[in-house]
Amino acid sequence: MRCAGIDLGSRTIEVVIVEDGRLVASRQAETGFAPDRQAASLLAGESYDRLLATGYGRHLFEQINGTPTVTEIKAVAAGFHALAPEVDLILDIGGQDSKVVALNQTGKVIKFEMNDRCAAGTGKFLELVAMTLGFPLDAFGQEALKAEKTLQINSMCAVFADSEVTSLIGRGEDRRAIALGLHRSIVNRAVGMLKRFNLDRSTIGFVGGVAWNPCVHRLLEEHLQKIVHIPPNPQIVAAYGAALLAAGG
Amino acid sequence: MSSDYTAMWQELGLDLEAHDALLEALSSSYQDIFLSQKNRPQGMQYLDFVMSEVHGLRIKELLDARRAGRPVVGSFCVFVPEEIILAADGIHVGLCAGAEFGTEEVEKILPRNTCALIKSAFGFKLSRVCPFIEAADMVVGENTCDGKKKSYEQLGELLPNLYVMDLPQQKTAAGKRLLREEYVRFLHAMEELSGITIDAKRLRRGVELVNAKRAALARLNRLRSSRPSPISGLDALLINQVSFYDDPVRFTGQINSLCDELEARIARQEGVVAGTTPRVLLSGCPMAVPNWKIPMLIERSGAVVVGEESCVGERGSRNLTDASGATVDALLDAIVERYFAIDCAVFTPNREREQHVVEMVQAYQADGVIHYGLQFCQPYLIESMPMEQRLTDQGITTLRIETDYSMEDLGQLQTRIEAFVEMLG
Ligand code: SF4
Ligand code: SF4
Q1: Which pTM does this prediction carry?
Q2: Which pLDDT value is given to residue A21?
Q3: Whose CA is nearest to atom 6 of ligand 2?
């Protein structure tokens, strides 16, 4: 059986097709201003027996297409469990939210935490401050890693951090040092959320758009003194999970 | 609601335009949230009627009663003893504080980071849209959390008839003495307001009326423990909310006949949802009318709320008062005994609340607990963490929610609640 999962995130949409449990195709695009049209074009030309939607835009998609839905929390758990069954604690930092999901040995969600409504510590935060510092987002992490020193950034709030950054620039501080400080503040926040779980006995996985950022990854591992597993494409895990759940359901 | 009441609202000094806007918003969300439900018991028609006349017929009744000499007393908290109000032939109404209203005006008086419930009470008063508060001869405030007790200082400026009751914070002998003294003082205040001397017979009658109401609510709660659930959590919440402002005798009769209907449903094994539906116990801050956000999200996510550990719920109605006392003193002792057992989070320590939640999970056959905390509510938010720990240790799946009355976090809350329901399923 051929099954599809679609993850309608706030920044990107991913589609994954699985056939008899094997991932056979995946596609990705920016969400843009018309998520439903973007989703339709991503699915165009694909054939599948079942489709399951997840992510921020799942209900909108459900209304339009009648597609059944699953939360991104369950989807990401199912996807990661299939990729790496040893992982039992998933950190997921996306465009607008961050969460931690704990699973049991069978891949079932047993607890989760989610940030509240502000954008602190999410992809949106990185995007804003990268822009203020004049770095392209995809090079932001690399550049931060080249810093010779780090600066303390106190504000967690995206808006305040931005003005803090502006004043640091004004003081003539090194851009990369500021960048490293910003990455640290994101990681501190993520670690704070992870610490609400039993970290000593956990195997940690990391997904979502921010998982592409090498500086966040490095700092997380340093801070936790642990390997943090990132799948080859950390952005498609929820869509993959949704496809697998579609097959099972 | 018909427009026949305009003159009455005008007489009460309501801001008619703002009031219209409020009624419109209320009736459309009522439509959307309550009337759209499936398999509702017939008996809910009474509640629908009450809601549709909440600012109409009920207010007219209050005003008529006032003209006949009965005082109307408004309150914000389940510590205000209704039995004493009834003993003085008074009418007790809970004041709504479940929607954002007049926020801008409120924030000129109260800090922004005050809980939504307190702000709402001020908002309704400041924007002159609540006929209950305007129709009250006396409004009783109680010194519970810091937010409430300090804000009553400000509310007193807006309400000439505010009576403030002190409450203990510890379950000690001294705490109990304080509660008793305050209830005696309140009894005298009611006597003065009504011109009636409260004797044992009157007080006993007050106790019996309130007991009958609480017994009906307890009966409803027992019926909700069956699987499949015979009534939705939204409808049950509505019943709890209406219990604060409807006439107690009429309400008791209606709820008992609703319970008869539910018993018949249970006998037929007919539920409002399938027997396999995940069952949620809601615990935490009170949900005054028209605060329906969280139960709506829970039930739209495919679960059913089977109980509320809340003041608008079992915390408020649990335990009856011993009505056998022969004297006012003996009856007062019994009343104090009954109220002193309330495990509100303003008490310290308050570990028995955790125990109650665990017991309720078993009694209602709940599959998990959602703890509802209003943003900036220190008592309940601080209790939410040890509560989660205790429940988790008992193997009970728990979700902690912190929110307010705004709708901006709807999407995020929906994801959380759906994921929680998925965990239960
Ligand atoms: S939570 Fe406490 S203070 Fe608030 S209504 Fe209930 S008993 Fe009163
Ligand atoms: S106890 Fe909490 S919810 Fe109740 S009034 Fe105080 S702060 Fe608000």
Answers
A1: 0.93
A2: 86
A3: B145
Q: How confident is the model at residue B95 (pLDDT cuts 50, 70, 90)?
A: very high
A161 pLDDT higher than 60: yes
pLDDT higher than threshold 70 for residue A33: yes
Q: B79, B118, B375: which to mutate for ligand 2, most atoms within 8 A of CB?
A: B118
| Least distant ligand from the CA of B152 | 2
C-alpha triplet B420, B424, B425: angle, nearest 5°: 115
Please give the Cα distance from B380 to B372 (Å, whole number). 8
Ranges A151-155, A239-243, A244-248: which has the least confidence: A151-155
Grouping H, G, I as helix, E, B as strand and the rest as coil, residue B55 is coil
Q: Is B167 in the pocket of ligand 2 (CB under 6 A)?
A: no
Closest CA to A127 of A142, A137, A115: A137
Contact B244, B291 (CB under 8 A): no
Q: What is the pLDDT of residues A95-114, one digit of tens each?
A: 888 999 999 999 999 999 99
CB contact under 8 A, A116 and B416: no
What's residue A153's pLDDT?
86
